[in-house]
Amino acid sequence: MDLRPALAAELADILDFWQVAAENDNRPADSRAALDSLYERDPDALIVAVDGDEIVGSVIAGWDGWRCHLYRLAVAPARRRQGIGRALIEAAEERFRALGGTRADAMVLDDNADAHGAWAVGGYRRQAEWSRWIKPL
Ligand SMILES: CC(C)(COP(=O)(O)OP(=O)(O)OC[C@H]1O[C@@H](n2cnc3c(N)ncnc32)[C@H](O)[C@@H]1OP(=O)(O)O)[C@@H](O)C(=O)NCCC(=O)NCCS
């Protein structure tokens, strides 16, 4: 298995992958335009786990020059509990460290127990003092 930045030619497959593998509740739908925009702005942010020519995992390690945000951590349902999620988180953290980031954060639904286990074992803790305030644009 290979962990590396996604290729432009893989973006359509990644959107399909997220339909079956990612957490899709309570969030804006993914779009090709949004993914193209991310890729254009920061092509190394989208990290994939690839087995042969199959995408088996993903994470977005978003760095805006100030903070380190993790999005779209997902592993193919048939490949879970094999350490791929952990490896993706570590790859994202490596990128953040190289860029000078000092703290990573992830948005995690309160009822997503699978994700709680994966983030917790990676050393992440819920920050009880904060809530996320949002406004659709
Ligand atoms: C969350 C997710 C990415 C974890 O990926 P994964 O490849 O299965 O995770 P790993 O195999 O690296 O697991 C690492 C550790 O996390 C913990 N963990 C992972 N899944 C867990 C679960 N369902 N329940 C409890 N602990 C879990 C375990 O401690 C595990 O180590 P172990 O298998 O040696 O016990 C995967 O379940 C997934 O894609 N879920 C759907 C999308 C999603 O919810 N993404 C997160 C959005 S915030």
From TrEMBL:
<dbReference type="InterPro" id="IPR016181">
    <property type="entry name" value="Acyl_CoA_acyltransferase"/>
</dbReference>
<dbReference type="InterPro" id="IPR000182">
    <property type="entry name" value="GNAT_dom"/>
</dbReference>
<dbReference type="GO" id="GO:0016747">
    <property type="term" value="F:acyltransferase activity, transferring groups other than amino-acyl groups"/>
</dbReference>
<dbReference type="Pfam" id="PF00583">
    <property type="entry name" value="Acetyltransf_1"/>
</dbReference>
<dbReference type="InterPro" id="IPR050832">
    <property type="entry name" value="Bact_Acetyltransf"/>
</dbReference>
<feature type="domain" description="N-acetyltransferase">
    <location>
        <begin position="1"/>
        <end position="137"/>
    </location>
</feature>
<keyword id="KW-0012">Acyltransferase</keyword>
<protein>
    <submittedName>
        <fullName>N-acetyltransferase</fullName>
    </submittedName>
</protein>
<keyword id="KW-0808">Transferase</keyword>
